[in-house]
Amino acid sequence: MFFHDLKYFILSQLKTKNLIFWLLLFPIALGCFFRIAFGEIYGNLTQTGPIPVAVVEEKDNPVFRSVLESMKGLEEQFLDPVDLDEATALERLKNNTVEGILYVNDKLRLTVAEDGLEETMLKKFVETYTLRETILTDAALTHPEKMEAAAAALSKDCHSVASVSVTTGNTNNFTQYFYNLIAMTALYGSLLGMQICFNNQANLSALGARKSCSPISKAVSLAADLTGAVLLQFLCMAVCVTFLVFVLKIDLGNRLPLVYLAACLGGMTGVSIGFFVGSIGTAGQRVRTGICNAVVLLFCFFSGLMVGNMKALVARFVPWLNEINPAAVISDSIYCLNLYSDYRRFGEKLAAMLLISLLFCILGIIMTRRKQYADI
Amino acid sequence: MQIFKAFFKVLKKSIPSSLIYIIIFLSISLVFAFSGQEDKTVFEQTELIFCIFDQDDSAESRSLVSYIGKQHELVDLEQDEDILLDALYYERVNCILLIKSGYAKQLAAGNTENLFERYTMHAGYADILTEQLLDQYVASVSAYLAEGCLLPEAVQKAETALSVQADVTYADFEADTEYPTVLFFFFQYLPYILISVLFNTLCPVLLTMNRNDIRFRTDCSGIRPASYLLWNSAGSVLFIIGIWLLFMGVGMILYGGLYVGKAWIAALNSFVFTLVSASWAILFSCFSPGENTINLITQVIGLGMSFFCGIFVEQSLLGSGVLAVARFLPAYWYVRINNMLSGNEPFRSENVLVFLLIETAFAVVAGMLALLIGKFRYRRLSAE
């Protein structure tokens, strides 16, 4: 009887268009959109090039001119200066084709249109230029004989900082949208979980009413439906991860089998949540589905599906929420696989998923047990 | 008139599904508008977020930490690999700096190389700025040491010299009162809401009104088919204009009065896009989709155009391939106009006109296709 029920649960769900849409088509469509939108952003944001700046010469300043000339030969050019008259320079600044205007007089002045990193770097350039003057004037006044040594010290390449890479994984932080997409798909498994209750509760569907009157053991029926839902969700998660990795070419790290494992366990968590929500009270299908969707989207919101930095904000102000939010736990598990070399935190996340699944399954069973047709 | 009344009776049932979009959008717009953005007149340099571990713990290293803290934000983090990795990944810090043991001694000896270790993740201007900051500091101290100063004195003199601020002014551009930032964002996200609302509301209503059994019943009555089409169209037009007016009203609340100048162009742009969305919704309803299909298509068209055409992500950040494809979608031209109005790209009135015409063409083509398909389906039904 178990296998009979299992077979027909799977067959009936495969024909449910709503589930196919939310569990297969929607994640694939959203994955494509994320890929289109975020595919090149990281590269663009981390790319650095010479900062375009207009130079307006109010007074001839050969020292500054020589500084600009010397910069042109550098391998990593810092500035992209262009000589302009003031009106044209202002026009270009307004149109965002230059980041600032350097007014050359006895002293340098900078005019910008907005605050920002490039503008701050231009400010630092002006300060560095002024700093050299200050230090060398100081030296000329106090120790003129050591002025040359001071100038040499200022001109020397310090190389004071050594960069250390913290991970060999994919550091593109826009990939987290895809981690969260996997988490969302996993939690949409709750729709399958709820379907178990709809199929077994007499007031929620004709099938439920028929099953309630039939002599099949409720435990066997629930076990078969739960198994069927979990198996279907495994399939959906496998399709989702495969599509992301092999079609959209999203870098989810080089431990792909473990990504599949995490996604499938996440899917199981989703099914269990749906099973629990579906078992509460006697409300109709639409109300339960609405509640479930709202809860899933709320979980995903706090995990960073809509706002990328949300998980970091939650970690800062309510750190415990990330430990119990199923969406955060699922996306974190894949994040850990991608960035960490060891498996400690990944193991913790898997354990958390299992625990959440178990908890909701037990709660769901407690809610549905001994619920007869007459009780509803 | 009966048809007109029936149209709005059916519409009433479809409105709740769209209300959620309208309420969320309006709430976010109002919160954004009243959060208040002050006009800035003084330049503020970008503050990076540093987490510094001082292994040297000397007077000189503490002085350096204090110097960095005056210009940038310092945060304390536990020296745990996971915490540091998370902080860098989610950009809670821009740079984790380790002042190596022996920093002061090395500096006093004139060695400037590898005094610090920097843990970073995302390359960019922040990295260059950090490197410049530290190199400049070390070079200045070295210069004073070369002058013959002792280390504490060199550090003090270097910090005094480094404290001189550059003369930075804001360009005296007149603030754009015709098209403030709040209105730019309002019109930027409007297409997504228009698509969602019009598809979710108009499609189910037209589907119901054009259901075969209802059409057969109407055909048996005294109402002429042309009249049926006319009253249906009148209902649709009234609803479409009503939705547009609702959003324009909210826009004016955000604006603080009647639109002026460029804001009217934005309103016209949004009106044309409303027509595009409505015509697409009408065209789509001709294929008699089910409830789930409407949901799917709404999400795909709404989110798809928003991601493709630069509504959710700036066009300047999208790849050239994506933008090349986006040209075949109306939202791309809508966003181009909005960018011109906000000054993100040079404003040219002839371009605005061309882009509006392109958008209109999308609406006209979809409308004509809808009419053709509708007529074809009606003839086939009549023949049966």
Defining traits:
heterodimer; A: 376 residues; 2 domains; four-stranded mixed sheet; 5 strands; elongated; B: 384 residues; mainly alpha; abc type-2 transporter like fold
The number of distinct helices of chain B, counting runs of at least 4 residues, comes to: 14
- Which strand-content bin applies to the residues of chain B? 5-15%
Largest sheet of chain A: 4 strands, mixed
Mean pLDDT of chain A: 86
**Structure class of chain B:** mainly alpha
Q: Structurally, how many domains make up the residues of chain B? A: 2
Shape of chain A: elongated
Give the class of chain A from helix and strand content and strand pairing: alpha/beta
Quick description:
The complex is a heterodimer of chains A (376) and B (384). By secondary structure, chain A is an alpha/beta fold. Chain A has two domains: 2-41 and 175-375, no CATH class; 48-151, D-Maltodextrin-Binding Protein, domain 2.
Description:
The complex is a heterodimer of chains A (376) and B (384). Chain A has helices spanning 2-14, 17-38, 41-46, 62-72, 86-94, 117-142, 147-155, 176-187, 190-200, 206-213, 218-247, 256-279, 285-303, 310-317, 319-324, 326-339, 344-368, and strands at 51-57, 79-83, 100-104, 108-112, 161-165. By secondary structure, chain A is α/β, with parallel strands linked by helices. Chain A has 2 domains: 2-41 and 175-375, no CATH class; 48-151, 3-Layer(aba) Sandwich (D-Maltodextrin-Binding Protein, domain 2), CATH 3.40.190. Chain A has a 4-stranded mixed β-sheet with strand order 2-1-3-4, with helices on both faces. In chain A, a hairpin with a 3-residue loop joins β3 (100-104) and β4. In chain A, α1 (2-14) crosses α11, α9 (190-200) crosses α10 (206-213) and α9 runs parallel beside α12 (256-279). Chain A is elongated. The two termini of chain A are 25 Å apart. The model of chain A has no long low-confidence stretch (mean pLDDT 86). Chain B has 384 residues and is mainly alpha-helical. Chain B has 2 domains: 2-37 and 177-383, no CATH class; 49-162, abc type-2 transporter like fold. Helices cover 68% and strands 6% of the residues of chain B. Chain B contains 14 helices and 5 strands. A 4-stranded mixed β-sheet of chain B has the order 2-1-3-4, with helices on one face. In chain B, α9 (225-255) packs antiparallel against α10. The relative contact order of chain B is 0.10. The model of chain B has no long low-confidence stretch (mean pLDDT 86). The chains are: A alpha/beta (376), B mainly alpha (384). Chains A and B meet through α2, α3, α5, β4 and α6 of A and α3, β4, α5, α6 and β5 of B.
